[in-house]
Design a protein that fits this description.
Chain lengths: 138, 88
């Protein structure tokens, strides 16, 4: 497809309302990066343990709240929606990425994204459990 | 009306995670954030042991703690060392 036609098609696709959020794969999306505002093609939207990640065509992983047009308040998963299998799979992937020598301090890469979500999830999970114990003690 | 009554559940989660510095972890703070989360897991694990309940939950918490420890070690191993003053 010629570049001009693709841009026009994508611009039309970009004009979406909050009602049909999140955008579809192949759409042009804008997001905040450390370099400022960027525009690129969306490859996939994937739920993590807590929030949705937007996978870009170049492999970068951007959390939903950094995508332009993300409805507020953002939709989060409830901690008890995450199954044991899902959590264990995530733990296995993280340890395997760490074992393979990947560095989580590479911003917007899959290890960085998955570790962020795992820490957020684990914090919420045990904070919630802590509150339950405190409530029981009262 | 308290602040938490006015907030939706989503806003509350956002606030809790933001206050804990866990929404988007700064690259130089990974080891510290992992330690913070480990601390929460240890507190909960102790409570479970004190009450001698929740064997499955205890196992799962212990496994998460092990994962966090492994990740912490990896992050620390990858942390760039500050320049040696004797070489400057």
């Amino acid at each position: 497809m010629p570049t001009g036609a693709r841009t026009m098609n994508s611009t039309a696709k970009q004009l979406r309302t909050e009602g049909n959020w999140p955008p579809e794969e192949g759409q042009i999306i804008s997001f905040k990066s450390s370099a400022g505002s960027e525009t690129t093609i969306l490859k996939e939207v994937r739920w993590g343990l807590v929030w949705r990640d937007f996978i870009l065509e170049d492999g970068r992983v951007i959390p939903e709240h950094r995508i332009s047009g993300c409805p507020q308040p953002q939709v989060w998963r409830k901690i008890n929606e995450v199954t044991d299998v899902e959590r264990e799979d995530c733990e296995e992937r993280l340890l395997s990425m760490a074992g393979a020598g990947m560095d989580p301090r590479k911003r917007d890469q899959s290890f960085w994204a998955e570790l962020n979500q795992y820490l957020a999830y684990t914090y919420l999970r045990f904070k919630q459990a802590e509150r339950k114990v405190q409530d029981t003690e009262r | 009306m308290s602040r938490s009554d006015e907030e939706t559940e989503e806003q509350q989660v956002w606030r809790v995670l933001s206050e804990a510095g866990l929404v988007e972890i700064r690259l130089d703070e990974f080891a510290e954030r992992i330690r913070d989360v480990k601390r929460i897991v240890v507190v909960h694990l102790r409570e479970l042991l004190d009450f001698n309940t929740g064997i499955k939950e205890r196992e799962s918490a212990a496994y998460s703690l092990g994962t966090l420890k492994g990740l912490e070690l990896k992050v620390l191993a990858n942390t760039p060392k500050p320049p040696d003053p004797s070489e400057m």
